Amino acid sequence: RELKMSVGTLSEEVLNRLSKMLDNGTCGWRQLAKAVSEQPKFHCSESELTSCSLQVLSAAGSPGRTLLARLADRSCSLDFLLHCLKKVEHQEAVQYLTVVEAERIQITVQPQSQQATVGGRVVLTCRATGPSGLTYQWFRGKEEKGCAPELVLCPLALVHQGHYICRVNHGENCLFSEWAHVRLVHSAGASPGCSSSLFPGSVSGLHITHQPQSQAASEGDSLFLECKAEANPPAQYEWYHNMAPMPQHKTRSLKIPCVTTAHRGKYRCKVFNLYHEMWSDTATVTIGPSSITDASWVAVDRGLATDKVALLIGNMNYVYHTQLCAPIADVHELTNLLRQMDFKVVSLLDLNYQEMHSAVTEFLLLLDKGVYGLLYFAGHGYENYGNSFMVPIDAPASYTSEHCLCVQNILTRMQEKKTGLNVFLLDMCRKRNPNDDVIVQPGLLKVTANIVFGYATCVDAEAYEVQREDVSNGIFINFLKRRVCEDEKVTVMLDKVAEDMGRCVITRGRQALELRSNLSERRSLTDQIQTSECSASFSARNLQWSVAHVLPTSRYLQFDCGVTVQLGFAAEFSNIMVIYTRMLEKPKEIVSCSAQLTDFPMVYVDLKKSNQETLLEAGSLLLIKEDLPSPEDPSLYTRIRSLQRLRRELTFTVCLHYTYSNMDEEVQERQPVTVGKPLVSKLNLHEPRPPRACSASSSFSLDSSVGSASSTRPYYTQTAGESSSTDSLTSSRNANIPEETDSPELCDTPK
């Protein structure tokens, strides 16, 4: 008998028994994780495997139980689990699961509440799977009414009204169905007897008796939503998440065993039968960080972090302001360096206001007691009255604090998490914004002695980029990348960066790093991570971070002509992905062949740079080559950007162009491909989060008539006798703020 049920239907007793077998056996949970990967949706990433293995650090932790929970969350069927256990030759688990299933009764069709008129016909149905010889008993109250899977009430009379339940029996074991309510309603045209027409006496319309309820949950909790309806014929159910169908959920109950922030959003249920259709109310589900009590924590040793998390944002392609060149290289290089120091890094390019706000909110979910948090921003910015503001790419021409993100407000929210270290690296200009006449007052800061601000430039000054022939760098990152991995106190490391910048000829007198800090202990970005006392929270952060960094699994497409094409994926940033196609097999009679991607959502792909033979031609200067085929394997590359704006699953078409040796005409074959929501798109950053804006205490009457001047680019021209470097200072990170300069070596040139 084929097993149809999901892993999620197993009882806690069975799951715990299986977990012990997987934890203690020589053929254990790691072998099972490898075996289930034959189906891509069950593949566990390295971070997920690490999360499983770290469960051993907790007294009640179980790697096997965590793996089974992940499989249940992804709707793994019991037949596939049993297949994989046989594949790894775990005989004890196979035998146990087989016995459990043989003795298990599972109701697959529950009786539904119905209403009809006198003289009508009602059929209550209950069906179950399990060992052979199942018997059925129907009851209304204590009175037995039938002994078959279907109970027919016809002609319907007043005595039939009431609540019915079915008991499924096998020997001494039994299982009760859910209650079904049969209700009579009045109809002017009702006639006695059993009508021969289809569903005579059925009531017009559907009636939802129980609506799904909005709720808040924490990461790792289970989510349960329920929608009940009365109808004749019985109602069917389909669940939707953010208006996207959930194919695995077609009963009146929706259960997700282990939620992450990817499960937040709006849920609705469509209820229907042969004649009618109705939608339930919308249930809004919010997901917060894992609920770990303070009692589960111990004091963090000096020089040890409970985790290290970084959010890197680079804004380049501004809609109404000067576009920048360097943030792509700056974010990429700093990402690689921080990962070498075991930071969980989220790297994002070109975010609008809503996306920046949501990204910061997700970043805060990754923070907790003792965690080192680092925020880096490269883009346009300004500073008014001691507050720094990061400018999103959609900021209007005359932007104010209302259109930007206040850094000090983010610090206040980080302190609420009791972090071990708060580092802000702000690679932006700090000139005053005359368009902004509001003094913003963030929440009160706590005395924590763990705050470090590294500003790329001084107050009321600009930050510059270094223009090279191939890749641009910001001045700040150009020097920071040489020191950031040194095992030094953060402030000592940044002091050295400031000294290096001061010795540079082209920046002297124009840009100088400013350091502000109250750091009292020796905290370094290279500090080790201590997880033994906080494995549950560490595991939750691993899961939360990995949600935003899951790539589609490489797949192989077979075409009718005999050609096999590999479709591969690589991440350039958390919101930018490269897709490549590579020919693996082709018949000898085909002389030329190429697989091109088409039918993309227009907003995500530059069509002129799609299906290119090199990464450079595809618009990617920086992608790590190890993620991609070697140059000897001809491939076509397409770069997908702005994945944070993807609202539905990413769908495109692979178009195969080929020519036979005896034909001049080109032949085409097409295959549609859906790869789900890759990387950061799962977090739905385009959706609003609860507002936590800075408060404006008062407005000083600045000259509101000061207009928005055209964006300028301070440009440095090298003179004789200076450094022979080919580097030059180009655009500043300062948008639409009037400036004055009397330096003969700086001149304004429009973008």
TrEMBL record:
Residues 684-751 are annotated as: Disordered. Residues 105-177, 200-286 form the Ig-like domain. Gene3D superfamilies: 2.60.40.3360, 3.40.50.1460, Death Domain, Fas, Immunoglobulins. Pfam families: Ig_3, MALT1_Ig, Peptidase_C14. Residues 306-433 form the Caspase family p20 domain. GO terms for biological process: proteolysis. It comes from the Eukaryota. GO terms for molecular function: cysteine-type endopeptidase activity. Residues 712-722 have a biased composition (Polar residues). Residues 693-711, 723-732 have a biased composition (Low complexity). InterPro entries: Caspase-like_dom_sf, Caspase-related_regulators, DEATH-like_dom_sf, Ig-like_dom, Ig-like_dom_sf, Ig-like_fold, Ig_sub, Ig_sub2. CDD domains: Ig. This is MALT paracaspase 2. The gene is malt2.
